[in-house]
Amino acid sequence: MPELPEVETIKLGLEGKIIGLKIIQVDLLEPKSFQGDSKKIINQTVKNIWRRGKVLGIDLSGDLTLMIHLKMSGQLIYEGKDRFSGGHPTSDINSSMPVKSTRVIFLFSDKSKLFFNDQRKFGWVKLVDTNDLKTDKFLSKLGPEPLINFNLEDFINKVKTHKKSNIKSVILDQTVIAGVGNIYACEALFLAKIHPAKSVSDLSDDNLKLLASSIIKVLNLGIKKGGSSKTHYFNIDGGKGYFLDVACVYDREGLECKICKTAIAKVKISGRGSYFCPNCQI
DNA sequence: CGATTCCCCTGATAGC
DNA sequence: TGCTATCAGGGGAATC
């Protein structure tokens, strides 16, 4: 589901909408989706929004932070106070909130609402003390941010510690690099002309350099396109992202490679669907 | 230790 | 039409 570009798009969207707003009510439609004492956030104000890997953070007054992971099917949809019933005119979502998959509803003092929807219930909202973030179990495991202070040498060394693995599962490993999921992994490997099942031990430093720059390139393009809307992803206004319109391999099985016209293939690698061009990627 | 498999859920879609 | 099998962008735990 949402990978780095989708979560970044949500972050940028929320920054412009909810900073400064006060939460006056929280509805837990699915208690399992919210960890912590939701009553603590009543009357707290949104101070800052951040992203780390695929995790979204919402810092509140009172030294509290909401951490949100959307996993496979999570969505965050914001409805401004002036949104008329029946759907926003610019939204791609054709039903207004809440929907069947709505798990948590945040109500702000200006009557606007933030909906956490999650069909598969894998995602979570977790309330933590802001001061405990630096020791948070999930965050502390994450590898470097690909778009912030990225160190090429560290990346290459870290990848090489998994020399027996296939390269695709290594770049999906969040301890190696944070935020890359299946879609952008497939696309980055295509750009770098590396077969997804290739063993790390068979890759040169130059291969890994090209892979690193390819990851950065596809993530930036993903952000520019507003993310990938295959099934579940929408931005906070209910609009789609358009990265898949320019994707070269993901979800293009049987279609022509945009470089050489060979049919794009799909195989399962480490349990995940992997798309690649059998001619360009060796 | 690292690598692989199973599993948490629900719904869409493909195949019969 | 209706049934069943498979699959979906993640990641934790158990197992090998």
Question: Helices, strands, pairings?
Answer:
Elements: H1 4-18, E1 23-28, E2 34-35, E3 46-52, E4 55-60, E5 64-69, E6 74-79, E7 102-108, E8 113-118, E9 124-129, H2 137-141, H3 152-160, H4 167-172, H5 182-191, H6 205-224, E10 265-269, E11 272-276
Parallel strand pairs: 2-9
Antiparallel strand pairs: 1-7, 3-4, 4-5, 5-9, 6-8, 7-8, 10-11
The protein binds a DNA duplex (16 and 16 nucleotides) through residues 1-3, 6, 54, 69-73, 101, 118-123, 138, 161-162, 164-165, 169, 172, 174, 181-185, 228, 230-233, 250, 270-273.
Keywords:
282 residues; alpha+beta; five-stranded mixed β-sheet; 6 helices; 11 strands; 23% helix; DNA-binding
Describe the structure.
With 282 residues, the chain is of the alpha+beta class. It has six helices and eleven strands. Helix content is 23%, strand content 22%. Strands 2-9-5-4-3 form a five-stranded mixed sheet, with helices on one face. A four-stranded antiparallel sheet has the order 1-7-8-6, with helices on one face. The protein starts with a helix and ends in a 6-residue tail after the last strand. It has helices spanning 4-18, 137-141, 152-160, 167-172, 182-191, 205-224, and strands spanning 23-28, 34-35, 46-52, 55-60, 64-69, 74-79, 102-108, 113-118, 124-129, 265-269, 272-276. The chain binds a DNA duplex (16 and 16 nucleotides) through helix 5.
